[in-house]
């Protein structure tokens, strides 16, 4: 989803769909069918990207290589560490 020249991720099943955006001073909420489907901190500069790695779980299930090469996973601080180690 693009808002003010910034990119925000949405769940995979909503890619290329129409959605409503609610802008707040510090965040934005993306709504589909009257329900909030994504929320991100608002990016105040231009040409930035905000990913939520959880939006990509269905894609990773179908294409495991996306985890290695996907842009949302290059920002390792967003992906939680494994609890099994």
If you had to describe this structure to a student in words, what would you say it looks like?
Pfam families: Mu-transpos_C_2. It comes from Methylomonas lenta. Residues 2-52 form the Transposase for insertion sequence element IS21-like C-terminal domain. This protein is α+β, with helices and mostly antiparallel strands and 85 residues long. It has one domain (2-78). 13% of the residues lie in helices and 28% in strands. It is built from 2 helices and 6 strands. It has helices at residues 57-62, 65-69; strands at residues 2-3, 6-8, 20-23, 27-32, 35-41, 49-50. The strands form 2 sheets. Strands 1-2-6 form a 3-stranded mixed sheet, with no helix packed on it. A 3-stranded antiparallel sheet has the order 3-4-5, with no helix packed on it. It is globular.
Please estimate the helix content.
Answer: 10-25%
Question: Could you say how many structural domains there are in total?
Answer: 1
| Main β sheet profile | 3 strands, mixed
Low-confidence stretches: none
Radius of gyration: 14 Å
User: N-to-C SSE series?
Assistant: EEEEEEHH
Number of strands: 6
Which descriptors would you attach to this protein?
single chain, 85 residues, alpha+beta, three-stranded mixed sheet, 6 strands, globular, Transposase for insertion sequence element IS21-like C-terminal domain-containing protein, IstA-like_C
